[in-house]
Amino acid sequence: MTRDLVLAKVTEAGAGFTFVLDGKTCGMEYEGSSGRFVYTLWYGEAIREYRDPELMMADRFFGGRSLNELIDAGIALDFF
Hints:
Oligomer: single chain
Largest sheet: 5 strands, antiparallel
């Protein structure tokens, strides 16, 4: 799956996803209302929110790795 496809599923379809990394449950949820959008990432018990999807994708939040890097490495994402 490509980075562009992941972003399209998240921003256009409102999808979220989960995955396991380093033995921790990880994922992303997307919420939007009244023109305000928040992307929430979690890595085990750590949580971080973003308003900009590009920043969310590039932040090295997952043990020093970004979603861009994980997607390029072929991590399996379970969309919901």
